[in-house]
Amino acid sequence: METIKIKGMSCKHCVMAVTKALNEIGGVSDVSVDLEKGEASFEKGASVDDITVKEAVKKAGYEVV
């Protein structure tokens, strides 16, 4: 399980947007986003790199810190 910190989330819509963005990456599964902690946890296949994850979160309008 991988956990990343995400900056910019403030509501349930933000959680849904980040969850959707991560779920759209091939090789990512079991996505769980925690608004209070400002974190996202997920399982990541070997073919998924950190840059892909950061770009997906950035496209959704948030920042990985």
How would you describe the overall organization of this protein?
By secondary structure, the chain is of the alpha+beta class. Helix content is 34%, strand content 32%. The protein is built from 2 helices and 4 strands; from the N terminus they run E-H-E-E-H-E. Strands 2-3-1-4 form a 4-stranded antiparallel sheet. A hairpin with a 4-residue loop joins strand 2 and strand 3 (39-44). The longest helix has 12 residues, at 12-23. The radius of gyration is 10 Å and the shape is globular. The two termini are 18 Å apart. The model has no long low-confidence stretch (mean pLDDT 97).
Report a brief summary of the structure.
With 65 residues, the chain is α+β, with helices and mostly antiparallel strands. The chain is built from two helices and four strands, in the order E-H-E-E-H-E.
The portion of residues forming beta strands comes to 25-35%
Strand line-up of the largest beta sheet: 2-3-1-4
| Largest pleated sheet | 4 strands, antiparallel
Distance between the termini: 18 Å
Mean pLDDT: 97
- Helix fraction? 25-40%
The radius of gyration over CA amounts to 10 Å
List the helices and strands in order.
EHEEHE
Layout: helices, strands, pairs:
Blueprint: E1 2-7, H1 12-23, E2 28-34, E3 39-44, H2 50-59, E4 63-64
Antiparallel strand pairs: 1-3, 1-4, 2-3
List keywords for this structure.
four-stranded antiparallel sheet, alpha+beta, 2 helices, globular, 65 residues, 32% strand
